[in-house]
């Protein structure tokens, strides 16, 4: 049945929230828009005259749509092998994608993309939007207890396990953030200030242009090489990489590059650029609080 003006207005009032839910589940602005539009079509066909909680009804419908899309995405990966990141989802307006990725956090989007479909849905709904587990259970077709376990497993993976003490983790993060700020600025003096005099830059052949060496030694030489990474610095964000502070580079929230960073005192002793897909898949990535 067709929706009346009152229901349409109530849907439009929920649109921004629904887009936020869908984007965190799907990591793609284009797919989020499509999922919300599909939720609208289902609302338009449904009799919701007895629905007391329309926002909750819409969240449930949208979440099931997103879950189906995530499962289909996994099936494509299994059928075709690991897809290039660009093939995972359609690309919306680049500016919209950039804004959404900045709002959510590129590291979080990368980590969420490594969760199973049901884990991702349960985590997003509960930890980000405070949806009760009874409602999540209906979405993922599990018991409330099982839904709670899904969210707990996802939360553990999102947070990760640091391999250094909290004070060292905080210090390493400060150093890495200063390194990123200097790389974004392109200021050679600022870059040299955050590098150890004996700093080393390494990289696999997919991360380093063919005309550049895979290893460079010495702060001044490394500072010059940072220009190679600097083009991607605006897409970079600190993250927990194998339990230590590193950097993920993720345009539109899609992982392209990881920096394994070594810290000595208050400076960067070296970093390695990793772009090889097999190596990227083996890295344990998590979000820094």
Automatic annotation (TrEMBL):
UniProt GO molecular function: DNA binding; sigma factor activity
The RNA polymerase sigma-70 region domain, residue ranges: 11-73
Annotated ranges, domain RNA polymerase sigma factor 70 region 4 type: 107-157
DNA-binding in keyword set: no
Transmembrane spans: none
Biological process, per Gene Ontology: DNA-templated transcription initiation
The keyword Transcription regulation is annotated on this UniProt entry: yes
Subunit structure: Interacts transiently with the RNA polymerase catalytic core formed by RpoA, RpoB, RpoC and RpoZ (2 alpha, 1 beta, 1 beta' and 1 omega subunit) to form the RNA polymerase holoenzyme that can initiate transcription.
InterPro entries: ECF_Sigma-70_Domain, NTF2-like_dom_sf, RNA_pol_sigma-70_dom, RNA_pol_sigma70_r2, RNA_pol_sigma70_r4_t2, RNA_pol_sigma_r2, RNA_pol_sigma_r3/r4-like, WH-like_DNA-bd_sf
Name assigned to this protein: DNA-directed RNA polymerase sigma-70 factor
Family: Belongs to the sigma-70 factor family. ECF subfamily.
One GO term describing the cellular component: DNA-directed RNA polymerase complex
UniProt keyword annotations, A-Z: DNA-directed RNA polymerase, Sigma factor, Transcription, Transcription regulation
């Amino acid at each position: 049945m067709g929706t009346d003006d009152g229901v349409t207005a109530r849907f439009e009032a929920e649109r921004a929230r629904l887009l936020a839910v869908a984007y965190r589940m799907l990591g793609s602005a284009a797919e989020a828009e499509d999922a919300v539009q599909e939720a609208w079509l289902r609302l338009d066909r449904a009799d919701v005259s007895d629905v007391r909680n329309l926002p909750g009804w819409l969240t449930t419908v949208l979440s099931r749509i997103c879950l189906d899309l995530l499962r289909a995405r996994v099936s494509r990966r299994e059928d075709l092998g690991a897809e290039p990141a660009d093939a995972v989802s359609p690309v919306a307006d680049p500016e919209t994608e950039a804004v959404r990725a900045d709002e959510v956090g590129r590291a979080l989007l990368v980590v969420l993309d490594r969760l199973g479909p049901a884990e991702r849905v349960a985590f997003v709904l509960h930890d980000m939007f405070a949806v009760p587990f009874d409602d999540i259970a209906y979405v993922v077709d599990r018991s409330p207890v099982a839904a709670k376990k899904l969210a707990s497993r996802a939360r553990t993976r999102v947070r990760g396990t640091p391999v250094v003490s909290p004070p060292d983790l905080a210090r390493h993060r400060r150093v890495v953030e200063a390194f990123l700020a200097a790389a974004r600025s392109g200021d050679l003096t600022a870059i040299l200030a955050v590098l150890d005099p004996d700093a080393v830059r390494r990289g696999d052949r997919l991360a380093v242009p063919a005309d550049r060496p895979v290893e460079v030694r010495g702060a001044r030489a490394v500072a010059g090489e940072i220009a190679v990474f600097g083009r991607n610095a605006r897409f970079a964000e600190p993250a927990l990489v194998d339990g230590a502070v590193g950097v993920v580079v993720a345009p539109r929230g899609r992982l392209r590059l990881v920096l394994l960073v070594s810290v000595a005192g208050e400076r960067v002793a070296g970093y390695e650029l990793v772009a090889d897909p097999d190596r990227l898949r083996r890295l344990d990535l998590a979000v820094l609080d």
